[in-house]
Amino acid sequence: MGSGATILSISHSAQANHNGGQLQFGPDGKLYAGTGDGGGGGDQLHNAQDVTRLLGKLLRMNPDGSAPADNPFSNEVWSLGLRNPWRFSFDRLTGDLTIGDVGQDAYEEVDFAAAPAAGKGVNYGWNHYEGLHPYSDPSDTLGPNCCTLPVLEHSHTDGWYAIIGGYVVRDPAVPELAGRYVYGDNAKGDLYAATLSPGSAKGDGATGMHVADLSGFGEDAAGRLYAASLDGPVYRLVSDTPPAPPGTGGPPLGGPGGGAGGDTTPPNVTLRVARRQHVLRTKRFVAQVSCDEQCGLAVSAKRTRARRVTAAANARIRVVLRPSRKALRLWSRIVRRHHKLVIRVHVRATDAAGNATTRSARVRVVR
Asked: What is the pTM of this model?
């Protein structure tokens, strides 16, 4: 039976609120943590703008808790100027970072940072700004270009009081929300969606879904999204488009489980790999995969951990497969003895109807 170990401890004794609440591994394999500003009101402890303090930040760590060498401030701090980043997420397709930051007296906000930088060194403004607006009592003065302001804000006068950040939808079974960021508010309960990009958000509006006492969202390995309520239930987001009548050829968009309807055509998938790859030096295989419709991809190779991603229609996805250390040692011995070593890379693409296509390609492992 395993045992726990503390990898990071942050003092938070002055106030009881603004604790943050999210831990997540990023697409870079690093561990990210959102921390509140230490509580009270207006960042009275002056934490959010101080890069030597770990409160009011998005932190980035190695899995053992140490600070990566490429962090911007020589400590665990990745981004600053946050009040209470209760929920944040990475887009599984693009690696973009989105943060739902709970506001003070007037505004809730959504912050967006495109990959590959994904928020590195970014100052999101608190407590100089609340949402898009200068805060009434900043602890000090910054210049006009100090901060990256949110792409979305909602006012408390419209019933928003505690924003709950969500995820960009990549579930092939929910095509009407594909590529849109779904989020909500603990007090309001309605789920909203918008298409985000650097500096802007388009099409923001209610989805028609409602979760009372919303507390958070989750995403599983297949890209399915879930919403959790403090009342107890956990809901899965599914399509409300009815299945197409038999023979129409329309997409079968059922509820949980999906797979009903008239679509029996498997997706057309393309797998591209370099025929010779320096796997022993780079410690990875690289493949590019595309699909002619939105689909889920499972990419694997011998003695590597399979990767599962969701691909938009005709998008070319770069997939990296990392062999185990044991495999690399074995393969190194084989190649040193001048034996030819060929590994087959496999991909299985599954569309919203459950139709699947498989492809494979051979890669020669060289030093």
From this structure: 0.66
